[in-house]
């Protein structure tokens, strides 16, 4: 047997069992990583987080109040669900309101590269929230998830802007009614 | 393969290996016939009785190990029979570990294999403490991370037997790896997390707007259509009705975009992320793992992660899809690894202390000196100075007594304000 594992194991094993191998729950690697990520989070004045259960840091809500761009005046919230495979798996992020946005579909799915194809374990939660914030500054017609909105943005920026205002106020765009997100 | 028992117990061949030093054998290794007895006395745990597990059990039994335990939570499916060679058609529906254990015991007289049908998480440290070597043949990263954290967490610096060598085998199609973890001394599975390439993902907008491949249509049905049309229904990838539904939706979409190739079995493969298992990859990786176990058990040759050599390799990878190639290298331990970077240290605290007093104490102690720490246990967020909402929610804990928040001996993690250092502690309460 390898040197450090002496042959005296039997006695010591007994001692060790007596000393109490604990069944107490250990902090998981995912929890540790999220804890680290949360302490590095730079929310600024336009974002806040809410934890429905403060003991569960793997599930929370991020609220963004854009202060520039076409979505100014709105308040948008995203649910973050992080599993025990984090950071191997990216967080699952969904928009909680039904909004008119080229990169967010009517179900709240978000097309953001680092949430799927470009996710890497070295990325952190801050990178994700910066990416989400950017979606409101620069909606991107090249990666459409809501095809109609992307088409509008591409063909007529002014009418797209009007649609954004109307949808944010809880109005209809192309016969689809959106959630009121103005403050 | 028949079921004729093996009469030659293999000892003659084994004796040649474990009684005669090779050119690289450590001078500290005392090889002799006692080595063989040690080998027979050691307790080995195999985790997983699937493709790798079948190979491992057979190899270990034929290599002279006599006390083998195996854990697996699966039952035998007809699709396993092509490579999981310890199972027969009549075994379909039975627990893998039970059938595998009986088969190997029957073929290799004198070997005792103890199966446990269930999850690794069912067992605690007392169970894992009884083994001398633990070998994983798992297909899930989550399970690997769990056993890795458990084995590393068991390390008690005052008890040499609490260091359990962990051998991890993994295969993905034609690729495979075998690694040895000597807890806290060589890189652990958590340190190696970035070695597992995340599954290749197609951008969501491609799925939604410009699918090009049958897989795109299936992923669309899986991620988008299911949620739109069956809101509230939990998708069960083992439910044939659910897979059929996805298959039909994917097929419609494929026709819409003139894409061919969507089939039921492809749907199942994409949704369950099935990577075809290759019998020869399993055999190669399991052979390497078993070799490592034999070297660790007998010291007849240096194992991966050999402690006498600071530069020793720890990680063997095999690439069979581009010729036949193995590459072995040293994966360096990460100082900031959340699992093996810091071990939970015992910390004596007065049982009358509040959390606030404890935090002041942490800032003052020379070995910690953490100001504004973030602190939690598995169940509870004790105090988070940021983000603001969490600070507000955890602030009331500051005035509570530690004994009301944390159990004696429970693990807690303390992170400093910029997230750069994390300590783990186990609190020991005292009355003064
Ligand atoms: Zn590690």
Automatic annotation (TrEMBL), chain A:
Listed under catalytic activity are: [E1 NEDD8-activating enzyme]-S-[NEDD8 protein]-yl-L-cysteine + [E2 NEDD8-conjugating enzyme]-L-cysteine = [E1 NEDD8-activating enzyme]-L-cysteine + [E2 NEDD8-conjugating enzyme]-S-[NEDD8-protein]-yl-L-cysteine
Q: State where composition is biased (Low complexity).
A: 8-19
Composition skew (Basic and acidic residues), residue ranges: 173-183
Q: Could you tell me which SUPFAM superfamilies the record lists for this protein?
A: UBC-like (SSF54495)
GO MF term list: ATP binding; NEDD8 conjugating enzyme activity
Q: Where is the active site?
A: 111
Q: What is its EC number?
A: 2.3.2.34
Question: What CDD domains does its record include?
Answer: UBCc_UBE2F_UBE2M
* Disordered, as annotated region: 1-22, 164-183
Q: Which UniProt keywords apply?
A: ATP-binding, Nucleotide-binding, Transferase, Ubl conjugation pathway
Any idea where the UBC core domain is?
29-173
Query: What pathway is it annotated to?
Result: Protein modification; protein neddylation
The family annotation for this protein states: Belongs to the ubiquitin-conjugating enzyme family.
Mind telling me what this protein is named? Answer: NEDD8-conjugating enzyme UBC12
The organism named in the record is Eremomyces bilateralis CBS 781.70
What high-level taxonomic lineage is stated for the organism?
Eukaryota, Fungi, Dikarya, Ascomycota, Pezizomycotina
Automatic annotation (TrEMBL), chain B:
Keyword match Zinc: no
Query: GO molecular-function annotation terms?
Result: ATP binding; NEDD8 activating enzyme activity
| Residue ranges of domain E2 binding in the record | 347-430
The keyword Nucleotide-binding appears for this protein: yes
Give the EC number. 6.2.1.64
Name one cellular component (GO) term.
nucleus
Annotated function: Catalytic subunit of the dimeric E1 enzyme, which activates NEDD8.
Alphabetical list of PANTHER family matching this protein = NEDD8-ACTIVATING ENZYME E1 CATALYTIC SUBUNIT (PTHR10953:SF6), UBIQUITIN-ACTIVATING ENZYME E1 (PTHR10953)
What protein is this chain from? NEDD8-activating enzyme E1 catalytic subunit
Q: What organism, scientifically named, is this protein from?
A: Eremomyces bilateralis CBS 781.70
